[in-house]
């Protein structure tokens, strides 16, 4: 069981988008339809979703014209309207706008070894189980000689990934009381610009601070010698560095003290704290050079323990069902991803899909 892959050959943003949209036409359309169903289940009218998609497109064009062109290209290739592909990229913002709540979401661990060896990273990616076929692996060259490889949802410009400048990112959802429905720059586009343009934590943080957002997220940035979680919200951006021991772990609540004062997950998703305690208790295994050992350290099921590895409750409506759809480790020296389709409970040496 592997995720589909696509390697872009076009350097021009619109042409690159059109190439992807044409090659994965059915998948882009299915992903938009899946999100339309999710938004409807969460209480959003179709006309409102369209308006939010159009606003996301405007926000994207103002902040990142090249990426807005790429979205338009994907739409053209897939036979959709640009606002529909913008909806896929702005799904975090739309869910914040409808004030969607529920358990689930991602857990991330990064360890910078004291001996200077490559960073050891791993994360679970939890999402709604009816969207389990949404992800893909995408390689692109946004600028000559600069390669980006990302695990993302088909039609979305980036999520978790690495670049050949030696930088990688993990991605977790956050919720903050400042989140609002005046759709700003989609956080998935911030992730993409970081992969396209940044080689350091400082450059990544500057890009995040330059965007006006309406929803919250955390992008954990890793380089050979540094790691920091860039917590993004409409109320501001905070950079949380790794500790003196080189350990940096993040789930779905703010770690910055000021931003944490207006935290939403403390009531909406209290298991985020249990998951972080699980990661803290397994630092030794999460420091291992072997990605399978790191992934297995994430194995924990509810009830009775932190649900790091999530399985859907099929008695719940689609917007309240969560599944660990992928387990992902970054290999910065090789600029590659190791991806397992599913949760840590099924990881084995032979189940890794290496994308390079």
Automatic annotation (TrEMBL):
Keywords, alphabetical: Acyltransferase, Transferase
InterPro entries: C45_proenzyme-like, Peptidase_C45, Peptidase_C45_hydrolase
Protein name, per record: Isopenicillin-N N-acyltransferase like protein
GO MF term set: acyltransferase activity
Peptidase C45 hydrolase domain segment(s): 121-304
Species name: Nonomuraea wenchangensis
PANTHER family in alphabetical order: BETA-ALANYL-DOPAMINE_CARCININE HYDROLASE, PEPTIDASE C45
Coiled-coil residues: none
Pfam families per UniProt: AAT (PF03417)
Keyword Transferase assigned: yes
């Amino acid at each position: 069981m592997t995720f589909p892959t696509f390697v872009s050959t076009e350097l021009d943003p619109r042409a690159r988008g059109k190439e992807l949209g044409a090659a994965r036409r059915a998948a882009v359309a299915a992903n938009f339809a899946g999100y339309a169903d999710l938004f409807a289940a969460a209480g959003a009218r179709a006309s409102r979703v369209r308006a939010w998609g159009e606003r996301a497109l405007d926000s994207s064009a103002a902040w990142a014209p090249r990426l807005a062109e790429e979205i338009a290209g994907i739409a053209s290739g897939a036979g959709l309207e640009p606002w529909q592909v913008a909806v896929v990229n702005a799904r975090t913002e739309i869910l914040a706008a409808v004030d969607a709540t529920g358990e689930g979401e991602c857990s991330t661990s990064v360890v910078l070894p004291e001996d200077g060896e490559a960073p050891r990273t791993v994360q679970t990616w939890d999402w709604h189980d009816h969207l389990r076929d949404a992800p893909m692996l995408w390689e692109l060259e946004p600028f000559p000689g600069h390669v980006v490889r990302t695990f993302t949802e088909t039609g979305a410009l980036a999520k978790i990934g690495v670049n050949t400048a030696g930088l990688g990112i993990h991605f977790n959802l956050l919720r903050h009381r400042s989140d609002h429905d005046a759709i700003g720059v989609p956080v998935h586009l911030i992730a993409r610009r970081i992969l396209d343009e940044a080689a350091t934590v400082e450059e990544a943080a500057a890009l995040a601070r330059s965007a006006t957002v309406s929803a919250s997220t955390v992008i954990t940035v890793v380089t050979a010698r540094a790691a920091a979680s860039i917590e993004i919200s409409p109320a501001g951006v905070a950079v949380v560095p790794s500790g003196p021991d080189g350990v940096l772990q993040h789930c779905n609540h703010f770690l910055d003290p000021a931003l944490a004062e207006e935290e939403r997950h403390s009531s909406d998703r209290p298991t985020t704290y249990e998951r972080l305690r699980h990661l803290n208790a397994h630092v030794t295994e999460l420091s291992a050079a072997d990605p399978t050992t790191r992934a297995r350290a994430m194995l924990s099921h509810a009830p009775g323990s932190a649900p790091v590895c999530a399985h859907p409750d099929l008695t719940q409506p689609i917007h309240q069902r969560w599944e660990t759809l992928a387990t992902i480790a970054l290999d910065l020296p090789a600029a590659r991803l190791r991806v397992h389709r599913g949760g840590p409970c099924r990881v084995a040496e032979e189940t890794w899909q290496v994308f390079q």
